[in-house]
Amino acid sequence: MNKISAKQQRILDYISAFSLEHGYPPSVREIGAEMGLRSPSTVHAHLKKLQDAGYLEPNDHKSRALTPVRGPSMMPRVPILGRVTAGMPILAVEEHVGYVPYEPAAHGGAYYALRIRGDSMTGAGILDDDLVIVRQDTEARSGDIVIALLEDEATCKTLSLTQDGVWLLPENPSYPPINGEGCQILGVVKAVYREY
């Protein structure tokens, strides 16, 4: 791909982010407003350069729409749906508060992210205020780190299936195991995302 200007890179980043969030690319007017470009013809000139350089391609389903060619600026993202405890369970609150990049989301499956509150999973490398990427699933294997719902409270723990029953185990000796009989598995933790 050919070299592009800093402004064209900003336009490309904006188109990519907008497309990921809305499912369709922004209009020329929206690009102009975001970039502080008053003239639609200036926006069209930048879009033509991005297309000629191989960064944008026509969208077969929409006339005049250009979509980014898959690349680093088109990293799949998953929604952040609120918080969950790594401590004693708290009331599960679902609130869409943003996105986090996660490449495997492009290969199918439903994923979401939750912000961790507490320190019961530090032994597994999950710290207070980390984001965990969760694959939505109602089944898990013993040893999986899961998001489990106990009545109306959610927690992040290691699932243990034994002859004695179902247990939700903390990865911090300061916390006791939780009897998980009757819990509902909401998903399996697949990754940790730490913002610094």
Brief summary of the model shown:
The protein has helices at 6-22, 28-35, 40-52, and strands at 56-58, 66-68, 77-85, 90-91, 93-101, 111-117, 131-136, 145-150, 153-162, 165-169, 178-179, 184-193. By secondary structure, it is of the alpha+beta class.
Q: Any guess at the CATH architecture of the largest domain?
A: Ribbon
Q: Could you tell me the radius of gyration in angstroms?
A: 22 Å
Which superfamily, in CATH terms, is the homologous superfamily of the largest domain? Umud Fragment, subunit A
CATH class membership of the largest domain: Mainly Beta
Uncertain stretches: none
The percentage of residues in β strands lies in 35-45%
Count of runs of 4 or more consecutive helical residues: 3
Walk me through this protein's architecture:
The protein has 196 residues and is an alpha+beta fold. The chain has 2 domains: 6-72, Arc Repressor Mutant, subunit A (Orthogonal Bundle), CATH 1.10.10.10; 77-193, Umud Fragment, subunit A (Ribbon), CATH 2.10.109. The protein is 19% helix and 37% strand. It has helices spanning 6-22, 28-35, 40-52; strands at 56-58, 66-68, 77-85, 90-91, 93-101, 111-117, 131-136, 145-150, 153-162, 165-169, 178-179, 184-193. The strands form 2 sheets. Strands 3, 4, 5, 6, 7, 8, 9, 10, 11 and 12 form a 10-stranded mixed β-sheet that branches. A two-stranded antiparallel ribbon has the order 1-2. Strand 9 and strand 10 form a beta hairpin. Helix 2 crosses helix 3.
